[in-house]
Amino acid sequence: MVILAFLTESPMHAYRIHELIKLRGKDSVVNVSQRNSVYQTIERLLRTGVIHILETSRQEGRPERVVYAITESGRETLRAWVAGMLAEPVNEFPEFPAALATIAALSQDEAKQQLERRVVALEQEVAASVAAAQEALSLGVPRLFLIEDEYKRAVMTAEIAWIRSLVDDFESATIAWSEESLRQMA
After folding, report:
1. Phi, psi at residue 87, to the nearest 5°?
2. Which of 8, 45, 58, 69 is the most exposed place for a label (fewest CB within 10 A)?
């Protein structure tokens, strides 16, 4: 989806796509730790006909450079994907809710300690995200290309507030458990 979106802006070669993914921070929402991931995705997009090879060139002493462009079918596919993903919530299965569902596997003190560690980690992530956004904006990256990071910061900020509230509930014994109380509930 990200590759198709970049190709709607302009035809480009795989290396440029990989550069833009990193420059615009899209590597926080798609896994492209290896440049090969971009090439593999391009091959799949070529096979399905949503992109095509626009031109191939070779400069002396340099590898062959293939420029890709999106097809009309690719534009329609991208529009449908984005529209569906924006409009229709789906049931995703992140790890944190699963851990919350089984929190009683830890003692109440252990759970509190781990949640406090999570808050610290989230606060660090929010700070790093703010710094990265400021840097990207200073480099001229339009806010349009950073809104997913704004969303992620908003979610992390809400999560921090919720976890702090949960920890308060542990401390006030509004939520409490012990091995004995768990056995009685079972």
Report:
1. -90, -30
2. 58
